[in-house]
Structures are given as structure tokens and as C-alpha cells.
What does this fold into?
Amino acid sequence: MRTRGRLNAATVTLAHGAGGKAMRDLIDDVFVGAFDNPVLAPLEDQARFDLAALAAQGDRLAFTTDACVVDPLFFPGGDIGTLAVNGTINDLAVGGALPLYLSCAVTIEEGLLVDILRRVAASMAETARAAGVVIATGDTKVVPKGACDKLFVTTAGIGVIRAGIDLGADRAQPGDAVLVNGRLGDHGAAILAARGDLALRAPIASDCAPLHRLVAALLEAAPGTRSLRDATRGGAATVLNEIALASGVAIELDEAAVPLSEAVRGFCEILGLDPLYIANEGKFVAVVPADECAAALAALRRDPLGRDAAIIGEVVAGQPGRVTLRTGFGGRRIVDMLVGEQLPRIC
It folds into this structure.
């Protein structure tokens, strides 16, 4: 067994990305030490999997990738590491996949404190282990000061989809119910508050969480579920527009039914933000047949990550691609695709 290198430096230097002993020490000490598992242990240029074991769990592979560039790196409810792991898990989960393996590539700015890197690696390892997912391979790059903002993390994920599960944005039908698994806007609001630019002291924590087990419970209770989407950048409004366009249907939402915490509601009112467009990291939008809606809602509410699940609208036979909102004043407004960005560097 190869002896692992040990890192003694306090900050990351360009030598740690040059491919020599300094780089090996960084990888061994910070990443291999945190992610240690049998798939990663050989430290080959690729992870290797038993196809028979994968095939025993499903009949299709799901594959996704995600780059995290959040600012600040640490925020109430999570950090760039939990965000990277959970974000990739959730991208797989909303396709009906069981997440199994992740890769982790980091781009590090010269001068970053090694202690920050250790905290992020430990956070990723803990999050992956709790979710039952293996970080199987990775890559490390160090760039000169100013070439990136402290730390970027890119993850890719592989999962397996069981036979009989077939979700898609193009499957919504008039009469279907639109559900969310909880309160919207927590992540985007938490990030903005954590930056301190607005001198806000809102008690808001990110909703960053892995959703694969909740999705599994939903699909068991409501096997006819048509669509699932992860409501991250662009929020629920954006994914609802994508579903309406792909399915050639209209979607009508009820403003009074949209679950929000009082802190997020007040936060949005003060800043003039629309919570439907604010990013989430532990929320999905589901389109479920009307006759399975009650079972779906009950299954979601039995899990802490779905405790505040709600029906927020329905699919209707209106103008294809149009999403509208019944407001609290009795009127209607169009909920269009987000143009530009409400909040930068949120995930």
C-alpha cells in the first residue's frame, strides 16, 4: 500500500498544481484522506465500476455534471462542498435515478488557505456518506491569484434508473397537479443575506439537502408522476416555464398556496424580489396526475424534507408554454422565464 503524502503548507501555491510531490501531498492529505473509499483508493486516472452491480439496480444510467461558484464559500445551512454534492445528487434524483458515484474537480486560487480546503473536503465527504454516495474520482487545478475567486468545485454524478420510471418535462397533461416539496426561496435569500452587503440580519438558512430518498418516496406513492425538476437557478418559475413549453400546456399557479417562510417573504418584500425566481437547493417541482395527488402530498409530508409540501397550481389547456399566477388581489399575471439574473453567484 502506498504511503500517503502529508501537507504542511498553510496556503495553496502554484506548486500544488504542478504535478509533483507538492501536488501529491495536497491530494493525499486533503482529498484522499477525506473521501477515502475502495473505489477511489487505487488512484488511477479513472474510477472503475462493476457493470453487473449497476445493472442489478436498474436498466438505465443517468449522468450529470454541475459547477459550483457560490459566494461566499460558507453560508448558513451549508457551504460550497455541500452545495456541490447535494446539487449533483438532486440533478440525478429528479430523473428518477438512484445516485451512486460522484467525481470532484476543484479549481483553487493561489493563496487559498489550506484550512478552507480541508473544511470543504470534509463537508463534501460527510454529505456524500450521509447520502450513501461515493466520491470515486477527481482532479485538482491551481490557478494564479486573480484567475478564479478562491475556489470552484465541479462535480459529475452517475446514477441508475429503475425499470418503469420514465419522467420528463414533456409529459405534463391538463388536469395534473403542480406540487413543491416545501418553502421556496431559502437558498437564494440565505446567500444574499450572508454576503452582508445589505446589512440584513434575516434568520434564513439555505435549504441545501439531498432529495433522492424523498423522490423515491414520492414515486412509490405516486408512480404516475409525470415530471420532476430541481428548482435551482431561476427558481420554480423557470422550471415551470420549461415544463409548460416542453409539454405544450399552460400552468396556472395560486399565489396564496406558494409556501414561503415569513423571513423570506419579508426579505423579498423589502428588496422587491419575486420568490418564484429565487434559487433553491433542496426543493423540486413535481407534476402529478390529479388522482395520485393526495397520496403524493401525504408521502412528501412524512419526510422532514417534505414537511411543508404543497399543491401550488395545476396544468390547464391554455396557451401552450404560458404560466400564470392568480394573485392575492384576485387578478392574474404572467410568470415569464427569468430574463437576466436576480442574484449572481448563488450556486
Remarks:
- The CA atoms of residues 96 and 161 lie 6 Å apart.
- The longest helix spans residues 114-131.
- Residues 177-334 form a domain with the Phosphoribosyl-aminoimidazole Synthetase; Chain A, domain 2 fold (CATH 3.90.650.10).
